[in-house]
Design brief:
The protein is an alpha+beta fold. It is 40% helix and 23% strand. It contains 5 helices and 8 strands. It has a 4-stranded antiparallel beta sheet, with no helix packed on it. A 4-stranded antiparallel beta sheet has the order 3-6-7-8, with no helix packed on it. A hairpin with a 4-residue loop joins strand 7 and strand 8. Helix 4 packs antiparallel against helix 5. The longest helix has 32 residues. The two termini are 46 Å apart.
């Protein structure tokens, strides 16, 4: 039995120009895969979905298959909106890519057919050989970009945490200033070192953790103790009242 498979991996571009694979090479078709992403800027009103095929870690080394934009997104802090991308490819090689924003149900899609502008068998073979040739170099480059993104996300996470009212009220000025200072210094360094080595990014993450972790851990531990010791609401004899917690 001869089964049709995808000749190259299919995915979308994510932060740092990374090829985020949804359907790996040699996946039997028909196939369907979904993945959820988040916005990478405050009050981001649109997201451009760029679809690629290829085997290397950066989209600049892969082939663009199509692009569309998901617009009219609600205002929200960085990372709060959830964008779900769906890939659906049938036995004729027709690929439908859709993206939707969960809170408002905004959706858009494109259809990519298996004819005009698609790669030839020889071009696919050449891309596979190239991916094999640069496998080790690509692995190191992908790790470097991943560590850079981890550092950037941590900086924004620290800034977001400091903006929370409970943190402003529960952590003294000295503690907040310490976290703010290491976050600002790290962002300044990151802006000037976009092509640093993975180990350098890791070291910066550890430096932030060394400052922020003890302060935040003490704050959350204190808040947990206060929550446990607080009297339950309601009439005497009733069990404690519970609220749903948003994850």
């Amino acid at each position: 039995l001869l089964l049709d498979v995808t000749p190259l991996s299919l995915g979308v571009e994510t932060a740092g120009g990374v090829m985020s694979v949804l359907i790996p090479r040699n996946t039997t078709v028909p196939a369907q895969k979904s993945q959820t992403f988040s916005t990478n800027a405050d009050n981001q009103r649109s997201v451009e979905i760029k679809v690629y095929e290829g085997e290397r870690p950066l989209v600049s080394q892969c082939t663009n298959m199509g692009t569309f934009t998901l617009e009219n997104l609600p205002n929200a802090p960085r990372g709060k909106l959830r964008i779900t991308v769906d890939f659906d490819i049938n036995t004729d090689g027709i690929l439908v890519v859709s993206a939707s924003e969960e809170s408002q149900g905004t959706k858009h899609a494109i259809t990519i057919t298996n004819d005009k502008g698609r790669l030839s068998k020889q071009q696919i073979e050449d891309m596979l050989k190239e991916a094999q040739k640069y496998e080790e170099e690509d692995r190191k480059n992908a790790e470097r970009i991943e560590e850079r993104n981890i550092l950037e996300n941590m900086i924004f996470s620290m800034r977001s945490t400091l903006s929370e009212q409970s943190v402003a009220e529960g952590i003294d000025a000295e503690g907040r200033q310490s976290i703010q200072k290491i976050s600002d210094e790290s962002m300044g360094w990151l802006d000037e070192n976009q092509n640093a080595e993975a180990e350098e990014y890791k070291a910066k993450v550890k430096a932030i953790e060394a400052v922020a972790h003890p302060i935040l851990s003490a704050f959350y531990a204190k808040r947990a103790m206060e929550s446990k010791s607080a009297p339950a609401e309601g009439a005497e004899g009733e069990g404690p009242q519970t609220d749903d917690v948003d994850e």
